[in-house]
Design goal:
40% of the residues lie in helices and 13% in strands. The chain has 17 helices and twelve strands. The model has no long low-confidence stretch (mean pLDDT 97). The structure holds adenosine monophosphate and magnesium ion (MG).
Length: 520
């Protein structure tokens, strides 16, 4: 296996001079060299064929021992100098100081077909940034990251990617609910890919230490490789860079809202400088439509990262990034304007996105009200978001009173639909039919467009959990099936309709389905 490995990050940015792998504060360096931990008995569970191809790895090579050894961290390629990045972050609204890649190890960058992919092993052992944890990952969380990052890509959501999922053969101790019930789980490594894994927190750490020289080096590096059209470093280029990061982050969260994805831990160390969804931990998919929902039990009290709050959190995180790069600019005005415009731009785009989900592609004065009352109705009883929007495509303009029947599969308990609610729905459908009359599209055109916006299949938590339970027993059929199905989330795929269903009752209050923590 020959990979075209480059190491621009580690060659062009300051390295930690200490090579010892001890947990510590690492000043004035963007990364530390580390060696992945040897694993007992690596076993390949799954590969993403398109990503292997993107790296110049043939299908045949993915079955070979070399692949197994390199992407489990057991063997180091001759031109690779693995490293862990230094970053900080705001966690749940508070500055947390140095965090860094505590269990992610970068092998280098593969330059292939004019694309750059940083190859990162997640769960490959301790680094100077492991703090009080073990640097490892378990099968449960690795399956969740592996499946979801690929599902997001095919949903059209900007995201990091995955290459492979492996068991390490080692056992890892975890306390899933942080309640003292520890148990051994199977260790695993996911190989992740992204053009870069630089996060907001990579900038924040230097700014917090008043290390402006390293901050400038990192910012210039980021612009040189990922925002090169902005030109040479200058105050104007830094402001323009911030504007692009803000735009990309806005697009990312807009997609999350469209498909009903709740990240769960939107700390600034989990915000990619490229606007990619990164770090799949206690995420979840809206089942019952609820702006106040978060899958993360660690955030149950404040629900800071609830579905309806995600756009505001992105803006809050952008404030932290703005503060971090401010020393390079020395003027707040440009940054403030971008931050200020974020909400107005987001609101306008959200309006457009929500309208498109109901097949409305032009703008009229009553639309805000129409969409607002829909949000209220969707939350009045437990209504499945994915099923509701998907079924709505079958709505007939000339029979608005059949609307409720058309979407009935989306309601968790039909009995909860009181006469009063039914009347409200009927009224809504009547206004909706009048509104659709004013669209120029034919029914077929509308259906086609709506079905490219409203997915049929998403990775509901209970589905990931079924794949985890089976895989834990050595049966990978569910994992394989979900992976294949999620490649085409907008297509009907009648062979998979059993996955086009509301969350089953057994999953309502089950750990891993409705209750997730950061333990991974
Ligand atoms: P997260 O909440 O998963 O984004 O992680 C926050 C920080 O904790 C990051 O610096 C991670 O690298 C680190 N971390 C999470 N789990 C582990 C682990 N098992 N071992 C070492 N570091 C970890
Ligand atoms: Mg993280």
């Amino acid at each position: 296996m020959k990979l075209n490995l480059k190491n621009t990050f580690s060659k062009e940015l300051p390295a930690d001079p200490i090579k010892e792998n001890t947990r510590r504060q690492v000043p004035e360096a963007c990364f530390s060299y580390v060696t992945p931990k040897k694993t007992a008995k690596p076993e390949l569970l799954h590969v993403v064929p398109s990503m292997a191809q993107a790296l110049g790895i043939s299908e045949e090579e993915t079955y070979k021992k070399d692949f197994l050894e390199v992407f489990s961290g057991n063997a180091i390629l001759p031109n690779s100098s693995p490293y862990a990045m230094c970053y900080g972050g705001h966690q749940f609204g508070n500055w947390a100081g140095q965090l860094g890649d505590g269990r992610a190890i970068n092998l280098g960058e593969i330059d292939q077909a004019n694309k750059r992919w940083v190859v990162q092993l997640k769960g490959a052992g301790e680094t100077p940034y492991s703090r009080n944890a073990d640097g490892l990952a378990v099968l449960r969380s690795s399956i969740r990251e592996y499946l979801c990052s690929e599902a997001m890509y095919y949903l059209g959501v900007p995201t990091t990617r995955a290459l492979s999922l492996m068991l390490t053969g080692d056992k890892v101790l975890r306390d899933v609910l942080y309640n003292g019930n520890t148990a051994y789980e199977k260790g695993a490594v996911v190989t992740r890919l992204a053009p870069s894994f630089i996060r907001f927190g990579n900038f924040e750490i230097f700014s917090s230490r008043n290390d402006i020289a390293t901050l400038k080096k990192l910012t210039d590096y980021t612009i040189k490789y990922f925002y090169s059209h902005l030109g040479e470093p200058s105050k104007e280029a830094y402001v323009a860079f911030f504007k692009e990061v803000a735009d990309k982050s806005l697009e990312m969260v807009l997609h999350w809202q469209r498909v009903g994805f709740v990240h769960g831990v939107m700390n600034t160390d989990n915000m990619s400088i490229l606007g990619l969804t990164i770090d799949y931990g206690p995420y979840g998919w809206l089942e019952g439509y609820d702006l106040g929902w978060t899958p993360n039990t660690t955030d149950r009290q404040n629900k800071r990262y609830r579905y309806g709050n995600q756009p505001q959190v992105v803006q809050w995180n952008l404030y932290q990034l703005a503060n971090a790069i401010y020393p390079l600019i020395g003027e707040a005005e440009g940054l403030e304007e971008i931050l200020h415009n974020f909400s107005t731009t987001y609101d306008a785009k959200e309006q457009e996105m929500l309208a498109s989900k109901i097949g409305v592609f032009t703008s009229q004065s009553g639309d805000v009200k129409l969409l607002h009352s829909l949000q209220e109705l969707l939350q009045a009883t437990e209504t499945d978001m994915t099923i509701f929007y998907r079924e709505l495509a079958a709505f007939k303009l000339d029979a608005p009173l059949e609307g409720l029947d058309i979407v009935k599969e989306a309601f968790y308990t039909l009995e909860e639909l009181t006469e009063e609610l039914k009347e409200k729905w009927n009224l809504w459908f009547t206004v909706y039919a009048e509104r659709l009359e004013k669209e120029a599209l034919s029914a077929d055109e509308r259906i086609e467009k709506m079905q490219k916006i409203n997915p049929k299949y998403v990775l509901r938590n209970y589905m990931a959990q079924l794949a985890i339970d089976a895989s834990d027993k050595g049966n990978y059929s569910v994992l394989n099936e979900l992976f294949t199905m999620l490649l085409k989330p907008y297509e009907e795929q009648p062979e998979y309709t059993k996955w086009y269903a509301k969350r089953p009752e057994w999953a309502r209050n089950k750990v891993g389905c409705s209750m997730l923590s950061c333990s991974s």
